[in-house]
Amino acid sequence: MGKRARTRRATDRRQYEVEAEWTEADLALLEKLKKTEAALPDDAPRALLSVRLSVLTDDTTSPVRQELDLRRLALDRGCRVVGVASDLNVSATKVPPWKRKELGDWLNNRAPEFDEILFWKLDRFVRRLTDLSTMIDWCLKYRKNLVSKNDSIDLTTTAGKIMVTIIGGIAEIEAANTSTRVASLWDYTKTQSDWLVGKPAYGYETAEDENGKVVLVIDEDARRALHWCRTAALRDKPASARRMVKVLVRASLCGSGLTASTQLRRLRNPALMGYRVEEDKNGGVRRSKIVLGSDAKPIRVADPIFTEDEFNSLQEALDRRGRNQPTRRPEGATKFLGVLICHDCGSNMTVQQNRVKNWSYSYLRCGKCKAGGHGAPNPDEIYSKLVNDVLRVLGDEPVMTREYRQGAEARKEQQRLEQSIGYYMTGLEPGGRFTKTCFTKEQAEKTLDDLINQLETIDPESTKDRWVAVHNGKSFRSHWEEGGMEAMAADLLRVGVKCVIKRTKVKGVRAPRVYMKLMIPKDVRDRLLRKEDDFAETF
What keywords would UniProt list here (predicted)? Predict the structure, then answer.
């Protein structure tokens, strides 16, 4: 292999560019390895090469070297390389194998195309024991093999199987211990006046004091913004939260993504008095409450932005202007979120709930049109019409589930029949062992015909590892009747079905006229195929 000249230092962290790394000697060696591989038998095991690199330094193994070494390993094992999953500039700590762009596609959609996954070293494949344990479970389920060039990992060897057991046990213990440690840390943190872990509330940021200890300090820009908002809320004509957001964004004191609801949560957070707080789950309303110490007093963790009198007067002003909105539903106010789309701006339609005096009402609005695009009243009527339209078009479609079928048994049976047929055909040739008497010849010909008939009944597709669509006996109508709107909404999102809402203003009428149009992809039947998630958290 030719020597590569690099000017990168170990501290150089720019992204890796694979095209610049192949030398003429590397390409010549690659061509030679491919020619050798072409001589392998058709039934040779199929290998998928997993190549990964986060950043290239003088201390790391380049993807070129990884691929060439793995191709040599594949030839030593008698395997044909069917693909190279090259995920560059990807961290194995942050991104598990099944979520990487190339390797993830092979694992989730192309499992029938390979028998083994080869990688250069364990840390090139995974860096977490839990990820490795999950991959081992997946390989055992689909009868795949994991092979490392520089580690003792091979699921076909006795040592490799022992390693699997050890790693699985360690991963299980690590997961349980991690959960216990995290819960214990948070419980302990709540009782301390020191800032140990977590994200500070808006208005504060972390810094180090003269002793190197992490402390909370006031963010001056945020303090200015909060005090201006308090002054605006206490005016004779108080500013609305939407007006506050507009002014703060224009003054560059907040980002453009700030919303009125987020601004109100910030102004109502008792952490602005310098106290430690925790989430207060109360009927879906997002609030924070003060954490009390062992002396039943609030735990102070920072200097206050507002005094208690200032904070309480601000809350009273916000309460006076508040509309006493209905309590947020835990499951969400909007049904079919992501399915209902505005015709004019293309954004999602969401439910706005208002209460005026003793009368409450709700309507659908979009996120980008001015004033919500006139709003669409009676969301339940729109939901009902959408359900009827979907049932009419897709309700009779069968629920098909993708299942993995292995062809090992069919291949073994096919090989047995072919060998038996060859044996009898040789015996029936002139001078063969079955041609000595009429009886043995007739019996051999009868057996040969029977073997040929058995071979003809074997579907060539059944000898391959493959995905098959299996009908579970239900239609989507019955599936949705059992699961309700939530099940239908999840399937429509997965399939990509959209319902476009168009609202037209009617003269003299407050409510607009609403038109609905169902948009269904042409390949909807293929998309409706349900795929098992092998890498869900419950796997």
Answer: DNA recombination, DNA-binding
Crossing angle between the packed helical segments 308-321 and 220-233, to the nearest 10 degrees: 50
Least confident range from 30-34, 185-189, 328-332: namely: 328-332
CA–centroid distance for 133 within its chain: 18
Burial readout 410-444 (b: 16 or more C-beta within 10 A, e: otherwise): bbeebeebeebbebbeebbeeeeebeeeeeeeeeb
| CA 233 – CA 268 distance, rounded (Å) | 12
Q: 423 and 350, same structural domain?
A: no
Q: Do 22 and 138 share a domain, yes or no? A: yes
Residues 302 and 437 in one domain: no
Give helix 220-233 / helix 260-267 axis angle, nearest 10°.
90
Burial-class residue 463 by CB neighbours within 10 Å (0-12, 13-18, 19+): middle
Helix residue spans in 234-362 (DSSP H):
241-250, 260-267, 308-321
Considering the domain architecture, whether residues 50 and 100 belong to the same structural domain is answered as yes
* CATH number of 281's domain: 3.90.1750.20
Distance CA 253, CA 266 (A): 14
What is the tally of structural domains in the chain? 4
pLDDT digits (tens, 9 = 90+) for 88-123: 888 888 889 999 999 999 999 999 999 999 999 888
Q: How far apart are CA 289 and CA 277, in angstroms?
A: 5
User: What pLDDT does residue 3 have?
Assistant: 39
* In contact, 286 and 265? CB cutoff 8 Å: yes
- Terminal-to-terminal C-alpha distance of the chain: 43
The encoded tokens of residue 442 equal 């007739």
Query: Does residue 388 sit in the same domain as residue 422?
Result: no
How far is CA 475 from each of CA 139, 182, 479, 529, rounded to the nearest angstrom? 32, 44, 6, 12
**Cα(74)–Cα(44) distance, integer angstroms:** 11
Range of the domain at 495: 340-399+472-531
pLDDT tens readout for residues 263-295: 888 898 888 998 888 777 665 566 777 777 777
Same domain membership, residue 347 and residue 246: no
Residue (of 398, 358, 394, 363) closest to 378 by Cα position: 363
Rounded Cα gap, residues 324 and 478, in angstroms: 40
Same domain, 132 and 39: yes
Q: What is the pTM of this model?
A: 0.64
Closest by CA to 525, choosing from 370, 394, 386, 336, is 394
Q: What's at 159, amino acid-wise?
A: A
